[in-house]
Specification:
The protein is an alpha/beta fold. The protein folds into 2 domains: 143 residues, Rossmann fold (3-Layer(aba) Sandwich), CATH 3.40.50; 155 residues, Rossmann fold (3-Layer(aba) Sandwich). It contains 13 helices and 12 strands. The structure holds nicotinamide-adenine-dinucleotide (NAD).
């Protein structure tokens, strides 16, 4: 049976402080000068908009929308748009900076940005979400642009929202501009392989890390928290590679099957059940959904949301390898505990960079006006992910630091050296 966490304590860090403490540590190890440090820590632009939307009941509701551009040193800024009640400016700032480091780690020519709207899309009709997405796009039409700032999906958004965004932005320009956003439906210039790219990348990275740790896929069990785009695709790819997925979870709870869960079956169930695992009976429902973090598996993939690994549950984690599918699933207070317990953590900015990598391919294809076949997309993204992993791994050995600090060192070093060439005022 999986380990049951004694008390479901959640200690939510300020995501910005969490990100900054990692940035500070890497900057120190790298010996970054003060001026560059100050430039890199501050976002270049922060935009907050009010979006009055007519709801289906005829009443007007005002939503708050954000877009933060953290850096454009490496190129136009790139980052997803999140629809969630937890969206706030601090979270968006942290996620925007993460995007800068993520693009730098995988060596793609983008800066970092993030956007979001504080809303609960699960309680909104399709029409309400469409009106909200169009209003947000119009409000941000001076910010977005294929050479300026390129959004993508994140939690609570997907190809349909990106299609509305592209359409509304295109209206402001009087022509179709499909390179303004990635993660679009295939028929509108989306890339083959984009929907599953993040999960595929997480899997490629998990396998590379397992090889270093001499973990055989056929003898490895895993738990995947979150059963959305990243979680379900990761679970599917891992199981195709022979890893036994003993636990999965979503907002409805956590599910355990000691013999392994049939992921295809779970995905089919979810799709037929309005996107939820609620009522899934092929696995036992765990009393405490947070117990998935500490359950008895070798590999843990948090692929839901932030701060799920913290100082209270980190001492009880049984996995020897954690591969971060979500952004910021481990808060800074848990880092030292995991490292002292010799648990290897492959950080978000490396592990989930497969999505932005294939987003970059989508943008390249749109700009060239052509479409790459799936095997080309997969081959190129797998290589980028493996190369990035090897670079971070070698940096960790060189500086005698964790993979997380090493990933930040690789990223900050790259952005700082570009900044030195470009210069400021
Ligand atoms: P999604 O909306 O498709 O799915 C989120 C899933 O997590 C859902 O199954 C939801 O029920 C579940 N969930 C939410 N809170 C939970 C909780 N507290 N406990 C258990 N399950 C919970 O979102 P997604 O696109 O899969 O994104 C998941 C994470 O991955 C986010 O942190 C996101 O920033 C990150 N990410 C996404 C992409 C991408 O390409 N979609 C790329 C990089 C990183």
């Amino acid at each position: 049976m999986p380990y049951k966490e004694p008390a479901p304590i959640k200690d939510k860090d300020n995501p910005l402080e969490s990100m900054m403490s990692r940035f500070d540590e890497a900057a120190r190890k790298l010996g970054l000068d003060n001026e560059t440090y100050t430039v890199l820590k501050n976002p270049v632009k922060q935009v907050v908009v009010s979006l009055p939307i007519t709801m289906d009941n005829g009443k007007i509701k005002v939503f708050e929308g954000y877009r933060v551009i953290h850096s454009t040193i490496l190129g136009p800024s790139k980052g997803g748009i999140r629809y969630d009640m937890g969206v706030n400016i601090n979270e968006v700032k942290a996620l925007a900076a993460w995007m800068t480091w993520k693009c730098a780690v995988v060596d793609i020519p983008y800066g970092g940005a993030k956007g979001g709207i504080t809303c609960n899309p699960r309680e909104m009709s399709k029409g309400e979400i469409e009106r909200l997405t169009r209003a947000y796009t119009l409000a941000m039409s001076d910010i977005f642009g294929p050479d300026k700032d390129i959004p993508a999906p994140d939690m609570g958004t997907g190809p349909q929202e990106m299609a509305w965004l592209m359409d509304e932005y295109s209206k402001t320009k009087g022509m179709t501009v499909n390179a303004v956003v990635t993660g679009k439906p295939l028929v509108l210039g989306g890339s083959l392989g984009r929907p599953e790219a993040t999960g595929r990348g997480v899997t490629v990275i998990a396998l590379a890390a397992m090889e270093k740790l001499k973990m055989l896929p056929s003898k490895t069990s895993a738990a995947v928290q979150g059963f959305g785009n990243v979680g379900a695709n990761t679970a599917q790819f891992l199981s195709e590679r022979g890893i036994t997925i003993k636990s999965i979870s979503d907002l409805s709870g956590a599910y355990w099957n000691d013999k392994g869960i049939d992921i295809k079956d779970a995905i089919a169930y979810r799709d037929a059940n309005r996107g939820s695992l609620e009522g899934y009976t092929e696995a036992e429902k765990m009393g405490d959904a947070n117990g998935i973090i500490t359950c008895a598996v070798d590999l843990l993939v948090p692929a839901a949301t932030e701060d799920v690994i913290h100082s209270h549950n980190a001492p009880h984690i049984q996995a020897k390898l954690i591969v971060e599918g979500a952004n910021g699933p481990t808060n800074a207070s848990a880092d030292d505990i995991l490292s002292s317990r010799h648990i290897t953590v492959v950080p978000d900015i490396l592990a989930n960079a497969g999505g932005v990598t294939v987003s970059y391919f989508e943008w390249v294809q749109n700009r060239l006006g052509l479409r790459w076949p799936l095997d080309r997309v997969n081959r190129r993204s797998d290589k980028i992910m493996v190369d990035a992993f090897e670079k971070v791994y070698a940096t960790a050995k060189q500086y005698k630091v964790t993979l997380r600090t090493a990933a930040y060192i690789v990223a900050i070093d790259k952005v700082a050296s570009c900044y030195k060439f470009r210069g400021g005022f």
